[in-house]
Design goal:
Order of helices and strands of chain B: HEEEEHEEEEHEHEHEHEHEHEHEHH
Strand order of the largest sheet of chain A: 3-2-4-7-1-8-11-10-9
Structural class of chain A: alpha/beta
Strand order of the largest sheet of chain B: 11-10-9-12-13-14-15
Number of helices of chain A: 14
Radius of gyration of chain B: 22 Å
CATH class of the largest domain in chain B: Alpha Beta
Oligomer: heterodimer
Distance between the termini of chain A: 37 Å
CATH superfamily of the largest domain in chain A: Thiolase/Chalcone synthase
Radius of gyration of chain A: 19 Å
Number of domains of chain A: 2
Largest sheet of chain A: 9 strands, mixed
CATH superfamily of the largest domain in chain B: NAD(P)-binding Rossmann-like Domain
Distance between the termini of chain B: 56 Å
Shape of chain B: globular
CATH topology of the largest domain in chain A: Peroxisomal Thiolase, Chain A, domain 1
Number of domains of chain B: 2
Largest sheet of chain B: 7 strands, parallel
Order of helices and strands of chain A: EHEHEHEHHHHHEEEHEHEHHHHEE
CATH topology of the largest domain in chain B: Rossmann fold
Helix content of chain B: 25-40%
Strand content of chain B: 15-25%
CATH architecture of the largest domain in chain B: 3-Layer(aba) Sandwich
């Protein structure tokens, strides 16, 4: 290999029409139902017929035995481009960047990027028990704590090395809850104080109740198409400045202290031609606040190890100096399975088009969305990010 | 330091018996390489045959060289805890009704990093020695123990879940008339069993060693004739709910093969006592054992079979006997699967000829009954499932692994 080929910009491609199907803690409907509703909202919001949507990109954990192909017949779609992105919290950005390239190359005109999952009584336990082969063989039998236990070990290690305190994680959670209070679809509707955060019951030390997302049912979706197509549909199109994606990076770190962003971060900024201080808000993947803190470092807002200080010296509400997870994030909205990553993209599309359902970030011109997912064994394997800009 | 267990109080007959639940048992087929190691108390991981990388979790291809030749081999069992957590909340009912699980990420000296149960005496970021154990579901798990033994360490609640320690448990030894049963009774008393029921077919009939056996603290004679279904059922009705470990010491060793033996009578007698005797025990005691797998400190824990190693490969000089032992081994496999749902282990202890009168004509090496008893105590304390006791058993096992056909020929010479 002789150096990296310069990447082509995403000129002329946009993401538009953010859709959320309001979450429910438990649902008697299955994943197909949630995905179908999201698709219908895309059709309704765009004025297109379902048959006009010629690309379909799907993410879901609870769709078995179906995959995307089964849903084409189920929903009466006849796409010429079909994708399944089974990457959990990384699915949204990966789905976006794949769809953008397919649109740009002319393989497809309009891609519906949909993520949806149901949450039946006891279905979360089953998802945990069969999440991955490594997890089944070598993690779940140990106390069956699921992701809570794995991230607890990552969090403790991070606290030991970099001096983060529970109060720092609490600050992130409290600010997100504040943001969620104005967001109509958040499952958590009451304010959270730092005292309540600190006093919450332990789940897996040092993870306590408010460090954990609430599994729920829901769906998120958006369209990817050419700018001219969006304009013809009267949909404000958010531009894609740059994206990155990386899997199983830094495999030799004994315990995860960074994600794959560190490998590609320079390219994310240089390709977009902007710098961290140009960003108006950030949507991190917040399955646990420690992971958000890692993202502040790995995405270039501060250096490795400075995450705790960065948190102490910034405010993360939508009116603060670093608006973060502006709809409340998964910690306050809920985690609708594979739609957890889409929550950030969908919220970014709303903020950048001035159509936030909750508190609007003033003059939001550039947003960063980051995804993280798939704790296959002892760490999250997938990381990705996208810099997005408001319509030109 | 581990708090020593309290001697369990008399059970409140009105209290609900806690029913057995199991930790997650699903494993990939390849991960059963760990099951095989744990069953014998070995610490074996996959070692790449091409690049010697040590791998964990179990894989189908080496992440260093993509080789598919990944046999399990014994590796160094030392390690260092990198980070840990105590899991307070789990969606699994088994863990919800037990104390919070302390688990850690351990960097193995052999190379990979493993999630392991941490013994209570393991310090923060401490050096540990790892063991592969079969948990309550019979599936293999990594357990990190303190580098050096600590007082009462076997009493650690998480560790005791994975073992069948006789301490404070009640044991049934099915035949006290022979040297094996007597050695086993003594070993169980010495290991801290709170009560040792010793079966005798005709309680009034005197026998050698009776006085010594009677003098053991906690030994109680009970009438038991394994060739009589009523006798076995009757005893189970009397004491079944108070038996935590069954050890079948019934012996019926006769020389002779299919052609040159003593006809069908010997075969029938051996079968009656050993195979049908085992089945009678299983039918009478199995159901209550299976219900009592989570019944506190003295829960039902194990069913121990003492088998001839020639159950694995017939020794024609004792051909009929070997065949019956093979039948018993097969039955034990069924029993193991049937008791697993209750979290009760079936331990098979394989031995060559014993130092007893029925093997009088054979040359050494032979296994002293006390050595077999000690091996059974070890197996119960470690929670292993298969134990090969003595030189002959080890020899047969090793040769069987290399070339079963050669072993068949050689045993017939």
């Amino acid at each position: 290999m002789t150096g990296r080929h310069p990447r082509k910009a995403y000129d002329g491609v946009v993401a538009c029409l953010p859709v959320t199907i309001p979450y429910r803690r438990y649902s008697t409907n299955n994943a197909q139902w949630w995905i179908g509703r999201a698709l219908r909202e895309l059709v309704r919001g765009s004025g297109l017929r379902a048959q006009d949507i010629d690309g379909f990109s799907l993410s879901s954990f609870t769709l078995a035995p179906d995959t995307a192909i089964g849903l084409t017949q189920h929903f009466g779609l006849s796409p010429r481009w079909l994708d399944t992105v089974p990457l959990g919290g990384a699915a949204a950005v990966v789905s976006l960047r794949r769809a953008a390239r397919a649109v740009q190359s002319g393989d497809v005109d309009i891609v519906a990027c949909v993520a949806g999952d149901t949450n039946h009584v006891d279905s979360f336990r089953k998802t945990l028990a069969h999440f991955s082969r490594f997890s089944q063989d070598a993690v779940y039998p140990y106390g069956a704590g699921g992701a809570n236990a794995s991230f607890a070990m990552i969090a403790r290690n991070y606290m030991d090395i970099y001096g983060a305190r529970r109060e720092d994680f609490g600050k992130i959670c409290v600010a997100q809850r504040q943001n969620a209070l104005s967001y109509p679809h958040a499952l958590m509707k009451s304010p959270l104080t730092l005292d309540a955060y600190m006093a919450a019951r332990p789940i897996a030390d040092p993870i306590h109740l408010f460090d954990c997302v609430m599994p729920c049912a829901g769906a998120e979706a958006f369209l990817v198409c050419r700018e001219d197509v969006a304009r013809s549909l009267n949909l404000p199109g958010v531009r894609i400045l740059s994206t990155i994606e990386r899997h199983n990076a830094c495999a030799d770190d004994p315990v995860q202290v960074r994600g794959g962003w560190v490998v590609d971060i320079d390219e994310l900024w240089s390709m977009a031609g902007v710098k961290p201080s140009d960003v108006d808000f950030v949507e991190t993947y917040d399955d646990y606040p420690v992971i958000s803190m890692m993202q502040f470092e790995d995405l270039g807002f501060c250096k490795k190890g400075e995450g705790p200080d960065f948190v102490r010296s910034h405010t993360f509400t939508n009116d603060g100096d670093f608006p973060h997870n502006t709809s409340g994030g998964q910690l306050s909205v809920g985690q609708a399975g594979a739609a957890g990553g889409h929550l950030g993209v969908v919220e970014a599309l709303r903020q950048l088009t001035g159509k936030a359902l909750g508190t609007q970030v003033q003059d939001a011109a550039i947003g960063l969305v980051s995804g993280f997912g798939m704790i296959n064994y002892d760490r999250g394997l997938s990381s990705c990010a996208a810099l997005l800009a408001r319509p030109s | 330091m581990t708090a020593p267990l309290d001697r369990p109080k008399r059970k409140n007959p009105l209290a609900r018996t806690r029913l057995p639940l199991l930790p997650p048992a699903a494993r990939s087929r390849t991960a059963h390489g760990l099951t095989a190691a744990a069953a014998e108390g070995r610490f074996a991981l996959q070692v790449c045959a091409e690049c010697q990388a040590v791998l964990y979790p179990p894989r189908e291809a080496c992440p260093s060289c993509l080789s598919a030749r990944l046999p399990f081999k014994d590796v160094e069992a030392g390690g260092t805890v990198l980070t840990e957590t105590t899991v307070h909340i789990s969606p699994e009912p088994y863990f919800r009704e037990r104390p919070a699980s302390r688990i850690g990420l351990v960097k193995l000296d052999a190379g990979p990093t493993a999630v392991a149960h941490l013994h209570g005496d393991v310090g923060v970021k401490a050096r540990v020695r790892l063991e592969l154990k079969l948990d309550r579901s019979g599936a293999p798990v990594m357990v990190a123990l303190p580098q050096e033994d600590t007082p009462n360490m076997a009493d650690d609640p998480a560790l005791r879940e994975m073992t069948c320690d006789p301490k404070f448990r009640r044991v049934l030894i099915t035949d006290g008339r022979n040297a094996l049963g007597q050695a086993m009774a003594k070993a169980m008393v010495d290991a801290g069993a709170s009560l040792v029921f010793v079966g005798l077919d005709n309680t009034w009939k005197p026998f050698a060693g009776e006085d010594k056996l009677k003098a053991l603290k906690g030994v109680e004679f009970v009438p038991l004739d394994l060739t009589d279904s009523n006798s076995v059922t009757e005893l189970a009705l009397q004491i079944g709910a108070r038996v935590d470990i069954v050890i079948n010491t019934a012996e019926h060793v006769r020389a002779g093969g299919m052609v040159g033996g003593h006809g069908l009578n010997d075969a029938r007698d051996t079968m009656e006592l050993r195979y049908f005797g085992l089945m009678r025990l299983a039918q009478a005691f199995g159901p209550v054992l299976r219900m009592r797998g989570a019944d506190g400190v003295n829960s039902a824990a194990a069913f121990v079979n003492l088998l001839s190693v020639h159950a694995l490969a017939n020794w024609p000089a004792y051909g009929v006997f070997s065949a019956v032992e093979a039948a018993c081994l097969s039955a034990a496999q069924s029993l193991r699967a049937e008791l697993r749902g209750g979290g009760v282990k079936v331990v098979n202890a394989f031995a060559g000829p014993l130092e007893t009168e029925w093997y009088q004509t054979l040359p050494p090496p032979k296994v002293a009954p006390s050595a077999l008893a000690k091996a059974v105590v070890d197996a119960l304390r470690k929670g292993t499932e298969d134990v090969f006791v003595g030189d002959v058993a080890q020899d047969i096992r090793a040769r069987l692994a290399v070339n079963p056909k050669a072993l068949e020929r050689e045993l017939g010479e």
